[in-house]
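Re-running Elongation of very long chain fatty acids protein to confirm reproducibility after the cluster update. Everything else is unchanged from the original entry.
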Amino acid sequence: MELSEEVKFVDRVSEFVVAYDFEVYDIIWTINWFREHRIIMYTIVGLYLFSIYFGLKWMKHRPAYTLTRPLIFWNFGLALFSIICTLRGIPEALYNFSKPDGTYHVVCVGLPHNFATSFWGLMLALSKIVELGDTAFIVLRKQKLIALHWFHHAATLWMCWIGYEYYETAGRAFFVNAFVHSFMYSYYALKAMKIKIPKKVSQALTTLQIIQLIFGVYMSSSIVYFLAQGRSCRMHFETISMGGIIIGVFLVFFVRFYIDSYSSKEKIKKK
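Result of re-run:
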């Protein structure tokens, strides 16, 4: 499908959301830029992993930084951004989900579409670069850095960049990720403020993340199902295959983390 055909349906005004002037941008130029500069994403991921390795070595014999105020502002900023993404991204997806055969419309059909959804989908993709800064706080404060953390950040950036390159239809469900992050970063901000939060809240957040991933598996499986039926689906093999694998790996990691952190067996072991 030609690029112009992929995005010609974008409109400023629709029955589910009205795009503000600042949300109207040159989508075709931006998609082309992403496609021509994928090396930038790979470079960022490489530098991210390089920085983690040498950052941990550099901090090994140094005292931990406190960074309380920067951490509070950082998390509240990302929480606010995630809330806005959720509010701007959810109307179009809910409108399509409410149709007969709603899942097919969300993951495979381009119409209808709106500049507001497109703009905040782009912002969410770019925010995955900013969110790499989460790891800097962990390293500089000498907290435990688990594999789930850095793999999740690197792989999510990869998925979002590729997803925007192809301007994938299913990307309109990005609000699910933003919704989860709204709670997650708010929780981190409150913890940075030394506010005592029950462990049940942390457990609920992990559960919410697992539900998000189950939803991702459902969306990926739906695409495969529709294709097996011989129905057209405006998705690309690279994102369907690699995205499905990464989401599956995320799910295994998060379930394992949940079991290790909250299972009764683990609690007995800690006692």
